[in-house]
Write a structure and sequence with these properties.
- The protein is α/β, with parallel strands linked by helices.
- It has two domains: about 1-215, Rossmann fold (3-Layer(aba) Sandwich); about 220-280, YebC, transcriptional regulation domain (Alpha-Beta Plaits).
- Helices cover about 35% and strands about 30% of the residues.
- The protein contains ten helices and 14 strands.
- It has helices at about 40-45, 90-100, 105-115, 130-145, 160-175, 190-195, 215-220, 235, 260-270, 285-290; strands at about 1-10, 15-25, 30-35, 55-60, 65, 75, 150-155, 180-185, 200-205, 205-210, 225-230, 240-250, 250-255, 275-280.
- The strands form three sheets. It has a six-stranded mixed beta sheet with strand order 6-7-8-3-9-10.
- A hairpin with a 2-residue loop joins β9 and β10.
- The longest helix has 16 residues, at about 160-175.
- The model has no long low-confidence stretch (mean pLDDT about 90).
């Protein structure tokens, strides 16, 4: 288990992370979210041992993370960190040796992953000759060469088309099923919702929201009603507790400030020709904006 216990990090007088705590168990995919400058990168660096917390501690299976532990960690950074003049094979050998792998194991694992990602013919190509999408595949492959116990993914889908996003998602899910602990950060909230059952949202280094995603959505008072049919927009807008009414394709999206307002909306349209009336939980993106005050882009 990864345990982040009350960690704080100062850069001189600047407080980057403030008393942050969370746990990630084997097989879990945990979301760590926040706009640029929220403290995500500093947190990642403290987790993998590149930065020492000003206070608090980080442990993996009860052990402080240092060079004796980092061979069990994989990290895909948001910025590309590939050595572009090397071939794919040379790149893999370089990273694999750093993780304590033998040359034979590195090449065996590389062949397996290149085949899985459909790029076996790129093994002897230089990184700089590859497209951005294929460079991202290589960066991901080098991050998981060692079958890490803990994997940190910062914007893993950057530069990928929908087909390759699905390929990445499948691999990430497989690793979780095999017991890897995964910390996932993405600007694409739909990906976070798909993967992560637990999450933390940071703002200015503070934990502004954390816990089980299903519970967070349930406890968030504002709800959405999707309606399809004959709707008197002005009548609905006048109902107490209705925040907004938006046209969304062939449907109307009615935002309400609490679940018990739904019955008032239903009563107002019950005599109309309605083919759909569905009360839905808010999206993670809505909750994020409400908590952080800005979009995650």
């Amino acid at each position: 288990m990864l345990k982040v216990e009350n960690i704080t990090k100062y850069y001189d007088d600047f407080l980057a992370v403030d008393h942050l705590s969370f746990e990630v168990k084997p097989g879990e995919i945990f979301g760590l979210l926040g706009v640029n400058g929220a403290g995500k990168t500093t947190t990642f660096r403290m987790i993998i041992g590149l930065l020492e917390p000003t206070s608090g501690k980080v442990t993996l299976d009860g052990q402080k993370i240092d060079y004796s532990v980092t061979d069990n960690i994989g990290f895909l950074t948001e910025e590309r960190s590939l050595l572009t003049k090397l071939t794919v094979k040379e790149q893999a050998l370089y990273y694999g040796v750093l993780k304590g792998m033998t040359k034979e194991k590195i090449l065996e694992r590389l062949d397996e992953l290149l085949e899985k990602f459909g790029i076996s013919n790129y093994k002897d190509k230089k990184i700089k000759e590859l497209s951005k999408g294929n460079q991202q595949k290589i960066q991901f492959i080098t991050a998981i060469l060692n079958k890490p116990k803990l994997l940190i993914l910062d914007e893993p889908f950057s530069g990928l088309d929908p087909f390759n996003v699905e390929m990445f998602k499948k691999q990430i899910t497989e690793m979780a099923k095999e017991g890897s602990m995964i910390i996932f950060s993405s600007h694409r909230m739909e990906h976070v919702e798909l993967f992560c059952k637990k999450l933390v949202i940071l703002k200015n280094g503070h934990d502004v929201l954390s816990g089980n995603l299903a519970d967070i959505k349930k406890e968030y008072r504002k709800k959405n009603i999707m309606i399809k049919g004959d709707v008197d927009l002005e009548k609905i807008k006048k109902i107490p507790g209705v925040i907004s009414v938006l046209k969304n394709g062939l449907e109307y999206e009615v935002k309400i400030d609490a679940l018990d307002r739904a019955k008032d909306v239903f009563k107002a349209i019950s005599k109309n020709d309605i083919t759909k009336f569905s009360v839905e939980e808010p999206s993670l993106n809505e909750i994020f904006i409400a908590k952080v005050g800005e979009t995650y882009e």
